[in-house]
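thread: overnight batch results

M.L. [08:02]
morning all. the overnight job finished for the chain we discussed friday. pasting input first so we're all looking at the same thing
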Amino acid sequence: MRFLADLMSQVRNEGEKICEGGGAKAIENQHAKGRLTARERIDLLVDPESFFELSLYAAHGMYEEWGGAPAAGVITGLARAQTRMVMIIANDATVKAGAFFPMTAKKVIRAQNIAIENRIPTIYLVDSAGVFLPLQEDVFPDTDDFGRVFRNNAVMSAMGIPQIAAIMGMCVAGGGYLPVMCDHVLMTDGSGLFLAGPALVQAAIGQKNSAEDLGGAAMHSAISGTVDFREPNDQACLARIRSIVEKWGYRRLSPWDRKKPVEPALAAEEIYGIYDSSPARPYDMKEILARVLDGSCFDEYKPEYGKTLICGYGRIGGFAVGIVANQKLHAQQTDHEGHKRIEFGGVIYTESAEKAARFIMDCNQNLIPLVFFHDVNGFMVGRDAEWSGIIKAGAKLVNAVSNSVVPKITVIVGGSFGAGHYAMCGKAYDPRFVFAWPTARYAVMSGDSAAGTLVEIKVKQLERGGKKLSEEERKELYESVKRTYDEQTDPRYGAARLWIDEIIDPLETRDAITQALEAAALNPDVAEFKVGVLQT
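M.L. [08:03]
and the structure it wrote out:
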């Protein structure tokens, strides 16, 4: 219990540091311009206590040679404005004047993709100097780079997803397209919107202009007609956005069933004492689920078959859901010849893969969103596993997950390794959201396994060259590899690269999933479910 609580405290403290953005001096400079910081703007814009931040750890530990980029210099998250769910994308001008690092563009695009998948109205609070020029080659050209942001603006507009942009500082060069491609454009006095600033215009064509004449709020409001609403300051601008949102009509909701939420019968705080990352002390995943599900009620599917994967129906935040979760307790299984064997917890066997594949297809047939809880070592290997058709069964599960049309939400509780990560709806399989506990581990294999494998390969290479490692050198190599792997499997490493949408407190698992399901409920469109050819 102490270990998990301490780890969560460490993550929370780091998160608070990230929330300081560019630091006290940069915040002071922002205030000196008569402007609020991005977080102060969000607080005024959204309903109290409604902001659910996403990708806080983006770019964590990256760009150190440039002084770092806390939260990638942009704040994103779900919130309520006038009770309506919205996606917030706000440049943090305290971080390198809101310039776009490579991960900044990727974070904005991830937020837009979530908005597209779930049809979430989006509000942009623009205050950015444009591309961070020293890294332009990694920001500019590709499908997950800067230009994709404006393409998404156009696509979202065509899909009927409302977008509001407020220019509350600088908005220059290509970045100028973002607000103008939205449904509503607001601009505060003292802000600037231009394809080229005064210095570049003078250098390019010899023309001298003040920033206000070239692209100030008064000019864009009265002369170019680009701005819909000119506001005197941040406070007035944010109040105007709330006034606009309050008048939106209501769209058709999705078909996912929802009843009045019921709190779990068991206390969430007990999760800290249940979860254990030690292989020597396997825990019961059903005890975790009982502290997340409404009323702690769970209709388990095929409970006596394929026991290392738990499948079943329940409700979270009132929404009906299908649960697919790795069971960490070891289980006894009887094969087709009547032989009993022990199955290791956290490992996917042929029977469990077949059960989960069938269950996922049932959920798609009956329009029930899926929630995956990861603590998986991978698929079983060895002769018995191969003879039982483990590859065939695994392919069936991957097929069902890949072609699933209901919303999928992934929670990485512990390990999420190798093909097990794929089969449990990893990032590559289009979950609407990926959340992780601070205990999550995310890689091809664990640090111990990777270090052992790579050391053996290295030893054989040296032996072929006539060299031999001493026991001390072998140990040093093992520790070096393990250290690198452990660093890369840490959820903060994955969150920095946007493989994870947010690292969450285990006690907030239910709230995070409920937020995700409420977002998914904004999209009423459900494609026809087809799985193609299945190995049988």
